[in-house]
Write a structure and sequence with these properties.
3 helices; alpha+beta; 36% helix; 135 residues; three-stranded antiparallel β-sheet; PH-domain like
């Protein structure tokens, strides 16, 4: 191997390591999860000034959560790319219960439908969805 080949190999290796460091630094390829109830509440409160969460239904995998405040208003928080997005849950949101799963379909098509595995709590949160549609 010639000296030119070694220089080229070293430069290529340095470039690959730099790109790997850059990707990690800016969070590309990350797998964001909602860690716990406090994290979900913080995300909902960041999305809407004045929203103070008191109760959380977090998806078992941590990809989404429903946060409720003292007034009964709810906010859906979900992983969106490398970050999180949140939307209010109101009478325009369609909720569908299927055993331990609650699927929320937002009126905003780009947000998409979100299915949360909530276990035995799925029925409680589905009931709250019905209350929104009746009130």
């Amino acid at each position: 191997m010639s000296q030119t080949d070694l220089i080229q190999l070293g430069a290529s290796l340095a470039a690959v390591l730099f790109i790997a460091w850059l990707v990690r630094t800016i969070g590309l390829g990350a797998d964001p999860r909602i860690q716990d109830a406090e994290h979900a509440i913080r995300l909902a409160e960041e999305a809407e000034t004045g929203f103070r969460g008191i109760e959380v239904a977090r998806d078992r995998a941590g990809f989404a959560a429903i946060v409720r405040n003292a007034e009964g208003r709810m906010m859906l928080v979900r992983a969106h790319g490398n970050h999180f997005a949140a939307r209010p849950v109101d009478e325009k949101v369609v909720g569908r219960l299927d055993k331990d799963f609650l699927t929320l379909t937002m009126p905003e098509r780009t947000f998409g439908a979100v299915t949360l595995q909530l276990g035995k709590d799925a029925g409680v949160w589905a009931s709250r969805m019905r209350d929104l549609n009746c009130g």
